[in-house]
Specification:
alpha+beta, 14 helices, 2 domains, 17 strands, 6-stranded mixed beta sheet
Length: 373
């Protein structure tokens, strides 16, 4: 919370939302229909603010399944759901109730808890790993200019190098996929570094054909039909990773994911690990025990969206098969534990789009507008 007067003196008002309605359930089982109006404030020399889109439908799903202690908790939840990804510094929520005077709540981004916090020591490690990653990125440019056709091949199976020393219900298997087993210099360095931090794990690499064989072997008829309906490689990988984690368990990592600490420490005494990115789930790193019913719900939601994706209904792979689809399931769950990925696992630390898709320019999912046949 912060001073209302402080906002007025030091910040400009960036936006004022329309008045919206919510039905709120409180801990004593009482229900109340409220209205709210949101305002955003930012300190800016240019007197401009990035546009803010209110995901009102997502907010409704949150309030359908949760109960709250007070109106203050309601106001804080509104801010967390709607504005956590924006660049606005302060928020003011006005709650309007018919039988009570209007209540105004002001929140500071710095004091809001938008995800689990990380210890200072881990943040320092994160900083130096990112420094190493930037060095490798700089080195990659002259290297690939001198050796433009040089590539390294991923092993289909790389067995574990030592016995595990920690306990976890998550199988010690790493799953990764890409359109080709050939990788560039920064991706290869990233792979070697990850293997140094996961020597007690076996590593499995799947190409496009291997993924399809796995789906045909283990997937139900609905999953197989949904997979065949997809035309985008990233969307297929999204569905495959869920199926392989449900059937086999283990750890899925995108090719550009980088560990900041030993993998065994991340999964220690856990039966699943989900990453938190400010206000939503991220699927570039996932870990779970086999036959986790929550993963089965993820699969069902993704398959449903693929079956009902006519005329690009969901807009992008992100909402069709990616985190946007899984968010829909998690919105209805309570007591889901997340880990702040900024301190444990990074994405794009050692490689960027150019070197991840060096043999397939514009191969990233954001460039493909037709992802369903």
């Amino acid at each position: 919370m912060c001073s209302k007067n402080y906002i007025k003196k030091s910040f400009i008002c960036c936006f004022v939302s329309e008045e919206k309605s919510l039905e709120v359930t409180f801990k004593d089982d009482s229900k109340s229909l409220i209205k709210f109006k949101a305002e955003g404030f930012k300190k800016s020399k240019r007197r401009k603010c990035p546009p803010v889109e209110l995901d009102y439908a997502r907010l409704l799903r949150f309030f359908e399944k949760r109960s709250y202690d007070s109106i203050n908790a309601v106001a804080e939840e509104i801010v967390k759901v709607l504005f956590a990804d924006s660049r606005i510094n302060f928020f003011r929520i006005t709650i309007i109730q018919n039988d009570k005077p209007d209540e105004v709540f002001t929140f500071s981004r710095k004091k809001m808890c938008l995800g689990p916090k990380s210890p200072i020591s881990q943040l320092v490690v994160c900083f130096f790993v990112r420094l190493q990653g930037n060095f490798i990125k700089c080195l990659s440019r002259p290297y690939h200019l001198l050796f433009p056709k040089k590539r390294w091949s991923m092993k289909v199976l790389d067995p574990a190098k030592k016995e595990p020393k920690t306990n976890s219900d998550i199988p010690r298997k790493i799953w990764q996929t890409n359109f080709t087993e050939k990788c560039s210099f920064p991706l290869w360095i990233n792979y070697l570094r990850n293997r140094c931090l996961s020597k007690d794990f076996e590593h499995h690499f799947f190409g496009n054909e291997d993924c399809e064989k796995f789906i045909l072997t283990y997937g139900s008829e609905k999953i197989i039909n949904a997979y065949k309906k997809l035309s985008d490689g990233a969307a297929k990988a999204d569905l495959w990773r869920l199926v392989v984690l449900y059937e086999e368990g283990g750890v899925y990592m995108d090719m550009d994911a980088s560990l900041f600490r030993p993998l065994s420490k991340i999964i220690e005494n856990r039966d699943y690990v989900f990453l938190w990115d400010r206000k939503r789930f991220s699927n570039f790193f996932m870990a779970t025990k086999a036959k986790n019913p929550l993963i089965k719900e993820f699969i069902d939601e993704v398959v449903y969206r693929i079956e009902n994706s006519g005329q690009n209904k969901y807009g992008s792979v992100f909402y069709l098969t990616g985190p946007g689809a899984i968010d829909r399931v998690l919105d209805e769950k309570e007591n889901i534990e997340y880990i702040d990925y900024h301190s444990l696992v990074g994405q794009g630390v050692f490689s960027d789009e150019k070197y991840q898709y060096i043999d397939k320019p514009n191969g990233k999912w954001i460039h493909n507008k037709n992802f369903v046949k």
